[in-house]
Every structure is written in structure tokens, then in C-alpha cells.
Amino acid sequence: MPTTATPSGIHATAQAAPCTLVIFGASGDLTRRKLLPAVYNLLLDGLLPENYAVLGLGRKSMSDDAFRTIAREGIEKFSRQTLDEDKWQDFQRRVFYMNGGVDDTSTFTTMKTRLEEIETTFNLTGHRIFYLAIPPTTFKPACEGLDQAGLIYDVHDRMHYSRVIVEKPIGRDLESAKDINAITGRVFDESQIYRIDHYLGKETVQNIMVLRFANAIFEPIWNHRYIDHVQLTVSEAETLGTRASYYEEAGALRDMIQNHILQLLCLIAMEPPYSLDPDVVRNVRMDVLRGLRPIRGKDVEHMTVRAQYAHGTIHGKEFPGYRREDGVRPDSTTETYVALKVFVENWRWAGVPFYIRTGKAMPKRASEIAVQFKDIPQILFNANPNLPQAPNLLTLRIQPEEGMALRIISKQPGSKAKTHPVEMDFKYGDAFDAPSPEAYERLLLDVMTGDASLFMRRDAVEASWTWVTDILKGWEEHGTKWLPEYPAGTWGPIEADKLIETDGRKWRLV
Question: Which domain CATH number covers 411?
């Protein structure tokens, strides 16, 4: 039987005030697949304010009705909840579209007129959220256009708010990240800027703080005295395909480590915050970034591994190697796989390695954090050195099936004192009646209520890029003409195995 519980989040969710969501890049895939279904699901769950509206801006020319048709198709295909015809009728009349480019000043004049008309029609107070689902190269004209058209309220205005959501990538190195932060910071106050990372909206990620700080059994042993090491794995079964030309300019380190995975590491490694105030939580996450041991120069040779997928088979289908994908240079050294050995240099984590790996074209799509505890003494039930007992292991599954498992040792049935590892397994889908909300649902609601806890602050973005840029420079200084390869459909190169096996450990089978 599923358990029942009173719904509660990590943070007490305030009531969202009436607002208008303006989506830049509304004709793109993110809007159809994620953003519009997320807003619709918030409506079904009764979490949207009574009055709201959505205005999409895109370069494609289309009518409001055409945009509504795209919205409906996206909801029918990608929403976690089925389309309710009555709710849809209310939703679609609040969805609008306008054509325009951010480099055209008339776009923002038209936008101001449309917004004022929409706000009058639906009795909206003027609260506005601008979602920049557009390339970073267009952030500058978008922000300046909003400012020059008088569409942004002053941060001290108590009657209205203006907030901006910035999609990744926030730069490709430290300098470009600083440029983007400066561009948005000239128009918006830092308190108005929400840098979104959808990983932080996933249920298991949100649950890390609850697991650590709402259960007395974990926090006392959450340190170097009891934890042997931590593994963070984010694997993707897809190859690059049509996205290969984009990926040539990014690579796995920029694409996954700098944002998603470092934020997961911060949640696992951070100190207990003294409150759930957004800046207090972000301060302790920031302390982890400050404590990362730099990987510089020749450190990259024994602390990092990068590789590319070669020809192989995934689920019975053959795929070409990365350097044979359209849009990829034949001599490319862009990594599709990266493994790192990371240390957080503070009292809690002294000497505890965090092994990180992420890659494309791997056997399956999965994201997990595995916390392995130290071996028990070699006496009693662990006395035989030839048959060492499996250590305790806490596994947090982020995708595709959210949940967690704790491996403990149990006695096997029978007259002899034989032991066997067993798992205490928790699955969100089994434990609760309702499906977990999608990450964008939670994050959009947090922006509406002004809760910035799950969003990256400017200093955190720049701190993470500082650390990652050191690795990029090390690769450049001590590079190689050809990267190691791993067949598509495998778990990575042999060099990654050596990275962890040199320390007497092994990668988990995810």
C-alpha cells in the first residue's frame, strides 16, 4: 500500500501573485516540450495564481491560435498529466504570441502594448517574469530592449516585480560567464535574476537536504570518519547526432560538470544551513565551491580523464564514432566523456575523494549519487580477507526512476552465520500516490513566489567557472592529439577505470 503524507516542500511555498510570463524563444523546442506543459501542470495542481497570462515571443510568424495549437500538441505529448478539456479552455485563452527579434527596438514597443492590453484584460497587477530561452549571444539586446522600453520595474518598487530567468549555458569559460553576468546585471538587480538549472528541480535533488538534515541517522556520520568516497554518475545513452556541431564548442566538462554536477556535489557536501532562507542555503553551497581543490597544470594528467565515443552498438543499433558525426572535425579533441577525482578541502571532507563521471553514448540514461561508507573492521563478520564484506552504500537515484536505496548487511536464513548484502529501497512512484512534478514546474513556481534557493547566484556561477577553466587550461597546456576512445554502448574508457582503481576502488555498475 502506498504511504500517505502531508505534502510539504523543502521551503514553505508562498502563494504566487498574479503575473505574466513572457517567454523569449517561444517558437523553440524548450517552450513546447517543457515550459508550456509545466505551466499547464501548475494550473491542474491548483498552484497558479487565479490571474495569470503567458506571452510568447519568437522569430517565426504565427497567430495566437497557431501558438495555442502548438501548446496543446506539446501538452498532449509531453505533460505528465492528461489534458483536461475544461482546464485547457481556460488555459488557452490566456496564452498569446507575438513575432519579433530582440535586435529590433520595435519588438519591445509592441511588447509593451501587448502586455498592457493583456494585463488589463485579466486584471493583472503588472508582475512580470521574462524567460530568456534564447542563445546567450542575444541576452544583451534582449535585456537592453526591455530596459529601454520601460518594461522592467525598479527592484525597490513594492507594487510590482520584474524577474528574469536565464537559461544555460551561462558562458563557456570564466570570462564569457562574467560578460553574461555583467550584461544581465546592468539591467536587473541580482535579486531579480534566476539562473535556472533544471537538475535542481528534480525531486531526488530537492530531497538531499531533507535526507541529510531531517533524519538524525545520517548527519552524524556524514564526514571523513565514516564515508570512504562518493561517486556521481550522469550517463546518457544518446549520441550527439544532429547536435554534434553545437557540442564541438562545448564538450562534457562545460555541458554537464560546470552546472549540473557541481551543484549536486554542493548539496551532498555542504554544511547545515542555519535556516532555509534562500541566501543562507546558497551561501553554504558557495562554501563548497570555494573549498574545491584546484586541478591545474599537470594535475589534469592524474586527476582527470577525457575521451570520445567510437563506433559501437546501443540497444542493438549501430552508431558511428564521434569524429565521424556530421559537423565534427576529423581531428577533434572535444570530449564526450569526462571523469574527475575531486576533493573538497575542509574539515568535514578531508581526504574523501568525489569521483565524477559523465558521458554520451553510454549503455543507458541514468543519474545517481552513491555514498560509500568505510569498511567495518576485519573481525567478526568481516574476518576473512579473501571474502571481504560489501560496505554500506547509500544511493540516490535522480533519473530515470527517482528514489534511494540503502545497502546493509543481513544474515542469510539458515543455521550458519552467513551474511549477505540487501537493499532497503525507496521509490517515489511507489511511496506516494501522485507522480513527481517535473523540474520546470517547481522552478517556475519558485520564480513566481520569489524563492531563489534552487537558482545559482552570480558568485557561484563565476566560482564554478573559475574551477572548470583551470581544467580547460590544463588540457590545453598538456593536451594530446588523440583522445582515448570507448565503444558506444559501454561505460567509458579504460583510463577512467584506472583513475579510480589506482586508489583501490571501482566504479559502480549503475
Answer: 3.30.360.10
Provide the 3-class DSSP secondary structure of residue 180: helix
Is 11 part of a structural domain of the chain? no
Exposure class string for 98-114: b at 16+ Cβ within 10 A, else e: bbbebeeeebbbbbeeb
Given a contact cutoff of 8 angstroms between Cβ atoms, the answer to whether 252 and 336 are in contact is yes
Residues 301, 167 share a domain: no
Same domain, 205 and 176: no
Is the same domain home to 249 and 377?
yes
Residue 459 to residues 177, 262, 277, 291, 465: CA-CA distances in angstroms? 11, 14, 17, 14, 10
Report the distance separating Cα 56 and Cα 22, nearest Å: 6
Residue 123 belongs to what domain range? Answer: 19-195
Q: Please report where in the chains the cell 539591467 appears, as a residue.
A: 187
Number of domains, the chain: 2
Predicted model pTM: 0.90
The yes-or-no verdict on residue 349 having pLDDT over 70 is yes
End position of a domain, from candidates 150, 166, 195: 195
Confidence of residue 7 (pLDDT cuts 50, 70, 90): very low
Residue 67 within any structural domain of the chain: yes
Cα–Cα distance measured from residue 79 to residue 334, given in angstroms and rounded to the nearest whole number: 34
Give me the residue label for grid cell 513594492: 158
Residue 9 resides in a domain: no
Least confident of 18-27, 417-426, 457-466: 417-426
Instruction: Determine the average pLDDT of the residues in 233-244.
Output: 86
- Catalytically annotated residue among 11, 229, 260, 311: 260
| Residues 446-465 as b or e (16 or more Cβ within 10 Å = b) | bbbbbbbbbbbbbebbbbbb
Side-chain-facing half-sphere of 493: CA atoms under 13 Å: 20
Other CB atoms within a 10 A radius of the CB of residue 285 amount to 23
Q: Is residue 1 part of a domain?
A: no
Grid look-up 568481516 returns: 382
> What is the H or E stretch that residue 463 is in?
helix 458-477
Q: Specify whether 304 is located in the same domain as 163.
A: no
Cα–Cα distances (Å) from 152 to 22, 187, 265, 360, in that order, read 12, 8, 35, 40
Do 135 and 118 share a domain, yes or no?
Answer: yes
Average pLDDT over residues 82-98: 95
- CB distance 215 to 491 below 8 Å: no
Kindly state whether residues 273 and 347 are assigned to the same domain.
yes
* 260 catalytic per annotation: yes
Q: What is the pLDDT of residue 415?
A: 63
Give percent of the chain above pLDDT 70: 95
